[in-house]
Amino acid sequence: xxxxxxxxxxxxxxxxxxxxxxxxxxxxxxxxxxxxxxxxxxxxxxxxxxxxxxxxxxxxxxxxxxxxxxxxxxxxxxxxxxxxxxxxxxxxxxxxxxxxxxxxxxxxxxxxxxxxxxxxxxxxxxxxxxxxxxxxxxxxxxxxxxxxxxxxxxxxxxxxxxxxxxxxxxxxxxxxxxxxxxxxxxxxxxxxxxxxxxxxxxxxxxxxxxxxxxxxxxxxxxxxxxxxxxxxxxxxxxxxxxxxxxxxxxxxxxxxxxxxxxxxxxxxxxxxxxxxxxxxxxxxxxxxxxxxxxxxxxxxxxxxxxxxxxxxxxxxxxxxxxxxxxxxxxxxxxxxxxxxxxxxxxxxxxxxxxxxxxxxxxxxxxxxxxxx
Length: 372
Ligand SMILES: Nc1nc2c(ncn2[C@@H]2O[C@H](COP(=O)(O)OP(=O)(O)OP(=O)(O)O)[C@@H](O)[C@H]2O)c(=O)[nH]1
Ligand SMILES: [Mg+2]
What we know:
By secondary structure, the chain is of the alpha+beta class. It folds into 3 domains: 1-58, no CATH class; 62-216, Rossmann fold (3-Layer(aba) Sandwich); 239-365, no CATH class.
């Protein structure tokens, strides 16, 4: 028999027996039975995610997380900030930096397994360091158990409790499970964790607290349904396609990004598109785009994942021309990026209006590698 458990061991929600639509619901008889059998206590939602990979809809407001989060942060002086290397701009947020100004912040760059094997840790570190000027940057993969040992070495000298924070789906709970041997619910759906969960890293005398992920609603994935977000979240090394820039040609990332080559600046201009395995990269002629999007959005062209998942007419499409030179890239946060490998070109980018794109130094840059 387990002692009484007040919160779901998977997501941290307060256990309740009344309302299946509210976080923490578990039928009373199931709760009592599992307690007496000494089994883990999971709310119905976590149970379905964990054993059936299905998301049960419940009512909660993610805005509340941010309000509660501000309060929780005040009680901690040590922060482990988890950032997703695949979605750096979407997960390294100014909103967080401002909150952590007076804290000891350790930066965890997670999911490095998604990058091509040829890129070295030093290269990734140098790239990140240009953006986060800190001597506390740790590159890890919670998935592949990379970089965890050196993180442990750093945490050994922390004597106080630590709050683990970050956007939704960056891998906070996966990291805690890896470090603490816990079984917190992990999933590719956003907002899996719903409350603070305390855990102890193996062999260390301190408490680590998992938190619900924060979402700022300006990433490409934020306009997709939770099941589509789950589908396009990368789990394997990013796929990459190489193209010779040809004026007039159009390249699509699913049905959400249209990239039109407006002008090729040098004789041989080559670019690459990087995206998760389930995001479709497709090139076509300009006259075919309209018809393709109409017939194939949510079918062949993923994301979205279903034809009627998004109402395309209400997306308020914006058009932007950008010149990209060798060694630079355009990032579509959470969906992929375009790297100029050779030469330069002007691209006209069509995206849903409320979403942001960024131009940055290329993360995966063969030229940089050959110099070192
Ligand atoms: N490729 C890869 N995937 C990872 C890694 N860490 C976590 N994931 C995946 O990312 C997804 C989200 O992981 P979680 O640990 O639930 O993320 P979270 O930050 O706790 O998410 P919320 O609780 O929703 O805020 C899952 O599909 C994980 O398998 C990693 O190192 N590499
Ligand atoms: Mg979580």
